[in-house]
Amino acid sequence: MPHASSQAPQPPQSSSPRLHGAAVVRPAETNPHAGTTADAFRTV
Questions:
Q1: Has this prediction a pTM greater than 0.70?
Q2: CA–CA separation, 28 vs 6, rounded Å?
Q3: I need a surface site. Which of 14, 16, 23, 31 has the fewest CB within 10 A?
């Protein structure tokens, strides 16, 4: 998956960028850990 690597300069973890995107787009319902992050992004 070169797209994920190109989008997020993170380690070779196809689960890292994908989870990040879902957490940012979806509320804390999907990711309880990203509750604050989702809230902050939603406020903005």
A1: no
A2: 26
A3: 14
